[in-house]
Amino acid sequence: QVQLVESGGGLVQAGGSLRLSCAASGRPFRDYAMAWFRQAPDKERNFVATITPSGGRTSYADSVKGRFTISRDNGKNTIYLQMNSLKPEDTAVYYCAANFGPYLATIRSVYDYWGQGTQVTVSS
């Protein structure tokens, strides 16, 4: 089992920045890939970014490429999502997720474990 807890959400103006964190516990952190998804009201939960267990490879949704950066600290069992140049359309609940493979997956169903989510609201 893997337990995931997100933090760092909040209200920010358009153009601003936020950094989300996701702390993991349970099975050894280096065993699994991690990802961020987001879900806006009345919308599907969509892929944002993913990172391999070593942190050596990442992948991003086109909508956030160049603005968001996913990273992980395996010594702290934590991943991060640095979000810059935020737009109102980035408003959503952000979820972190874990899977044991395949890596760099963008499909929600591949991920086995989920956090409870953290709200990000970007005002115009």
Mean pLDDT: 97
Q: From the alpha-carbon coordinates, what is the Rg to the nearest angstrom?
A: 13 Å
Which percent range describes the beta-strand content? over 45%
Q: Tell me the series of helices and strands, N- to C-terminal.
A: EEEEEEEEEEE
The amount of helix comes to: under 10%
| Assembly type | single chain
Helix vs. strand class: mainly beta
DSSP E strands, number? 11
Summarize the biggest pleated sheet: 7 strands, mixed
Q: State the helix count.
A: 0
- The global form is globular
Unreliable sequence segments: none
Q: How many angstroms separate the termini? A: 40 Å
Keywords:
124 residues, mainly beta
Notes on the protein architecture:
By secondary structure, the protein is mainly β. The protein is built from no helices and 11 strands. The chain has strands at 2-7, 10-13, 18-26, 33-39, 45-51, 58-60, 68-73, 78-83, 92-99, 113-114, 118-123. Strands 2, 4, 5, 6, 9, 10 and 11 form a 7-stranded mixed sheet that branches. The chain is globular.
